[in-house]
Amino acid sequence: MGHSEPAPAVGTADDDAKIAAPSRLVREAVGVPPVARWRHRGEPPVLAESYLFPSRAKVALPRFEVPIIGIQLEGRKLTFDKDAPPDVHGVFPYSIPNRCVLIPPDTVSYWTPGPGSMNLSGVYVGGRGEAAIRRLLGGSREPVMLRDTLLVALARQMLNLATDRRPGSEDYGSRLVDYLVAHLEWLSHAPPAKRPVRNTTYDTAMSAVLSLIENNIEQPLTIDWLAAKAGMSPALFRKRFTDTTGMPVHSYVLKERIERACELIDECNLPLAAIAMPSLRRQPRATLIQLVRVVETLIQADGQVAVFEWCLGRVLSQTIVEALAPAQAAAPGRGKLADARNEIVRLLAVVAAFGQDDTPSARRAFLAGTQNLPLGPAPTYQPPDPAHWSEGLGTVLRKLDGLEPPAKALLLEGLVATVAADGKTTVEEAELLRAVCAALHCPLPPLLAEAA
Q1: 95, 143, 172, 203 from 80: Cα distances, Å
Q2: Would residue 317 count as lying in a domain?
Q3: 100 forms bridges with which residues in the sheet?
Q4: Mind listing the pLDDT tens digit for each residue in 139-168?
Q5: Mind giving me the DSSP string for 309-376?
Q6: What is the pTM of this model?
Q7: Which residues, in sequence order, are bridge partners of residue 59?
Q8: What is the domain-level CATH number for residue 18?
Q9: Which residue, 151, 177, 269, 327, has fewest beta-carbon neighbours within 10 Å?
Q10: Between vectors from CA 146 to CA 142 and to CA 152, what angle results, nearest 5°?
């Protein structure tokens, strides 16, 4: 009778070699060493690594002997199999919405990070943990999305132990492994219909919809419109969309819009408020009015008004008011500088105070800003009250917005001279000048545009 060698029992020393092999293969595929690595050599063995991927790098992961938990630690978008050979059919539609994926053994997978660098972690588990992951995969030969935040948190804590050597860290690591295995087993023993997993089967209709969302993310998107484009009823569309992405339509669209905003911040260095304004202008009137009220409440919540809070509230309220009533936007004014002397002195004093570290320096900056303005007798610098600096400043800006264009140009030159008096531009100065220029309906001066 033939004799076959029995398979190793779950949790044997063979697991150590099994989880070390994929680590070596991943390192070879990525071409760089991990930025963090933590290993538990107890029972069961666990290895957690994280790799930093450059923007839009393409990585092909080879076949592994054991399944892997892949976790997106940092970064915005990760695509599976977008540029893979045509004979590979598993596709993640543009991103992993919940940051966690199970990669089955004996499967080649292709990955492409989106714009910006990305930190990805691989967690290799032996013994009972491996058996639980295999049950969750259910025999799938394609990566499977796993909606579970606890696994992500456990992986982060394991990687933190790579550099944290405080007393008790070894015992803490053992407990993390126990939690990890117990959680995987708990997930895997749930009825298949209740497991938080989604397969990656390619859905042509949904892929087209996701491309449509990505290309029209700045436009109003409704389920009825998207369903019509997909040739489905709204009810069927909702189900197919959730089955494909693991999240409802509105959650996916919101995620994509946040990712687009993050990309714009990285690429063009605009403040978040400026990036959000085009979308805000398309919101319903009631939503905009409620937003202004909420922001004003938040600004006043602690009884103090920071420069950033005031500037954000000012720009936001002005933009929304003008979006709701375009006809009320101010027409070019006819006022002269001499007619707004008090308001100009007040504004320059505020800018000087927030751009300097002490009163003498603020006074010098104030004088630099006023010396070339035709304001009559030389004004005296009066430091604004730190607790009430913003009171009445909105009224000041409304009067200055009524200046004639040449007067506004001279005023901006005075503001620039105030900011440039010490040869540097602080964040507070840049934010104030951005809010002032918005209130005066003037572009940012080149000096401040570069600083911003």
Answers
A1: 8, 9, 34, 14
A2: yes
A3: 71
A4: 887 777 777 778 888 988 998 898 887 888
A5: HHHHHHHHHHHHHHHH-GGGSPPP--B-GGGGHHHHHHHHHHHHHHH-SSHHHHHHHHHHHHTTS--S
A6: 0.51
A7: 111
A8: 2.60.120.10
A9: 327
A10: 125
